[in-house]
Give the backbone structure.
Amino acid sequence: MRRRDAGLIMRIHVLSHSEAESFLEKNAGEFDVLFVAAEPVPGVEETLQARSREMLRLYFHDAIDPWPDVKLPTADHVSRALDWASGRPQLVVTCAAGISRSSALAYLLWCRAMPPELAVQQLNQDRHMPNELVVRLGAEALGNQAIFSTFSEWRDATQQLWQARARLETQPKEST
């Protein structure tokens, strides 16, 4: 997806770690990588590093509430990601599944380049469910609570869509 970040054209791809490996194999040296994982992922990180221009590694769990042995995302994680990504025209944002942490960070990056109402449209309702804590921390870091409220409305509508689909899938099929 192409978006503007302070006058700079940005292409952001939100991918799982395995998708990022394949994507960067075909596009080696063209993208910077924002890598998120709960802990170091030997092999994957080295492969992505070798295929990227530069890579920032952040380690936190995909969680919103404290649990024993869970490293929650922090304001420092989010600020580091936003600062590092600024001015980088081509990004791969990747987490284990490419669903929650990476889509939250990508959404925040899009919000730097466009209003939240447009940024949220970059998310894929069939795939993405941004981490709520990352989005909340990003809205605070960017000083724009509309980022979180717009996300919350999108999240609620997406969850309703998923629930409606699940009901349809569990209904008995009519015989013809």
User: Anything to note?
Assistant: The chain has a mean pLDDT of 93. The radius of gyration is 17 Å.
